[in-house]
Design goal:
single chain, Immunoglobulin-like, 2 domains, six-stranded mixed beta sheet, 2 helices
Amino acid sequence: MNKGLTMTAAMAALLLLFSVSAQSEVYKVIDDQGNVTYTDQVPADGSPPMQLPELSVIETDYAAATTGGDVVASDDETASEHTPRDLRRMYRDFHINRPAPEETIWGTDSPVVVGWGSATALLPDMSVRLFVNGQPQADTRDGMVALTLERGDYQIYAELLDARGRRVVLSPTVMFFLKQHSVGPNLPAPVPSGGN
């Protein structure tokens, strides 16, 4: 057997045993071939348990992540109750959902609706800043905004901002095209040929 693989397996076993409660005892057993095994079972030769160093524990104010996936905000939660890391994790899927990437929108007589979203609802003190061709628009909490635009090509993206106006996440950029139906040239009516 590969000695490196044996050592790796032994280390993995040792780490697994470290995760066992402090009440458990760990024994090191070496067989006739020199293979090392760690176990919580008392060996046949009656060897005493190993003296393991005390585990280091570092206290932190960071709350452990829940196993249920994304944290869903309750009505009384605010962004200031979460760390920036929490907020980035909660809103990692923040994106522009309207218009679609590379969409062509016909007609300039009605506003273009730009929408964004995330699987997690925005916390009450968060806002969104939309950028159109690099120019910031007014901050809003609504999930969409109507823009009056001339025909042309547009690139849009949005910043999700926390309660202090700091960027939490930036959406991917979406490009879309606004076109106007062309009106054919005004040609003179055909003149009938032939006699009067």
